[in-house]
Design brief:
Pfam families: ABC_tran, oligo_HPY
Family: Belongs to the ABC transporter superfamily. Glutathione importer (TC 3.A.1.5.11) family.
Strand order of the largest sheet: 16-17-18-13-19-20-23-22
CATH architecture of one domain: 3-Layer(aba) Sandwich
Strand content: 25-35%
Oligomer: single chain
CATH superfamily of one domain: P-loop containing nucleotide triphosphate hydrolases
Low-confidence stretches: none
Mean pLDDT: 87
Number of helices: 21
GO molecular function, one term: ATP binding
Radius of gyration: 24 Å
Membrane topology: Peripheral membrane protein
Function: Part of the ABC transporter complex GsiABCD involved in glutathione import. Responsible for energy coupling to the transport system.
Largest sheet: 8 strands, mixed
Helix content: 25-40%
Distance between the termini: 60 Å
Amino acid sequence: MSNTAILDVDSLKVVFETDNGPVVAVDGLSFEIRSGECVAVVGESGSGKSVTAMSILGLGKFSGGRIAEGAIRFRRKDARVVDLATADEGVLRAIRGNEIAMVFQEPMTSLNPVFTVGEQIAEVIRLHQKADAAEAARQAVELLKRVRIPEPERRFTQYPHELSGGMRQRVVIAIALACSPRLLIADEPTTALDVTIQAQILELVRTLAAEGDMAVLFITHDMGVVAEMADRVVVMRHGRKVEEAATRELFARPREAYTRQLLAAVPRLGSMQGASRPARFGEAPTHDVPPTHLPLLEVKHLVTRFPVKKGVLQRHVANVHAVDDVSFSIGSGETLALVGESGCGKSTTGRSVLRLVEPKSGSVTLEGDELTRLSGDALRKKRRDMQIIFQDPYAALDPRLTAFEQVAEPLVIHGVEAGSALRDRVVGLIRRVGLSDEQLERYPHEFSGGQRQRLCIARALTLSPKLIVADEPVSALDVSIQAQVVNLMIELQQELGLSYLFISHDMAVVERVSHRVAVMHMGRIVEMGPRNTVFGDPRHPYTRTLLAAVPNPDPTTPRRTVPPAGLLPSPIYPVGHDPAPPRYDEVGANHFVLAA
């Protein structure tokens, strides 16, 4: 181990025992991370990236992994070097969370649902810093402020399910940074974050790394983040290291075909300039006359609020204005993208449209049927025409059902298929999203994060719906699989006339898949129009901030700006507060901007 290296992974081999024999998840992997350095590990879903991270912390054994060969040498704060591959559980427990911290890929499964988020941050501080309860609570609130969570004192007392996906991820990052670790392992840490918060979190991690000489192992599929954060890049495939190089060299002159394939699949903002409709990756954008779309879904003056209750008697004292007078329409065969910061109301809008969350007022009309007036069998029957792909694939899947049962379940419930026809339908869908027949009998925990998301997409397509609400459908996927899934969604739209409400924080993907774009902020749409006009001529200051914060997958051209960190305004208002209805100015053909 070199004098300046904090971590030295040497010829690591990790094996999982299965009913079909041993599976080698990591095979002969070697790399090192020096003090203050950021090393990114990239590769397709299932390439062994996360298994490597779990093995470093000694967590692989809890999911059936075994380090068969190699060493993981870590230099501790007192300069002693310990081999984590052979260290006992007592040593590992002292290191985890204190000297090596980890941000996991799925925040909801990382947080304990029965404890408040403040208690979970404070617990780490009390355990490793021997602080009393009051000091730990004070530091926890400060950490919530540092990761830009609004109203940190109130969030301190909330439970994970009360926060949005992006806020939960920020809580996980706060926990990881609580003890100023020597090594931070970040496994897709910005997956659930919109571009503005992503920019601030990455800036925070970079600043902390520089101030504390902290090393960072960054596992990600976002090549824009790699270009911005990493000093060196390790490319993995099928458990092996394919290529390792300095970031600039790798982006400019990738040696291996697989690395070139990864870089070619990266969505780049501006690549669809002037295009009239969505285009698959690898397909030249078309610039012909934009197609017209007959109305399928119409949403008018949608309002969704959540009550805030206090005291022993749980008095209703305020409301969270999650969706505040939102109106839009989606044509048959059209994609409307809904973008905005975490907590702005995007996901709640999608769930309100499907009646998974009951709106307070407004109308939602699908093919002439007013959904807010349907109930019982009528609503159940109508739900065959509308499906959702959730943001968190692990939470969306039943851990007791196999992949086959997960995909077949909607068909069984609605009595669409049975017997061999049912199996043929499921196998066809599984193959279509890039999974294989051999994986049909696996359970969700046996899939990687990206594979689980593909399973969710297959399940959403089973009933051949007319409308799919896609809530961050490719956020958990690496770039090559992301490109395949986006291509699949576009192909299905062209073949079947599917309509999508595409909720995402990835502006480059939004530009690729959408016909029109609606930008949300604080529960309201602030700008809406054709993709080309919103991306090419953004009029609202918030839209311009979002676009300027998009990371550029080119290390020689960093992202244009990092939005200043500051607390978001609160969406909570007293009972009885009714804001004035929004007023829009038409600044171009079908291009609307919220009036000041």
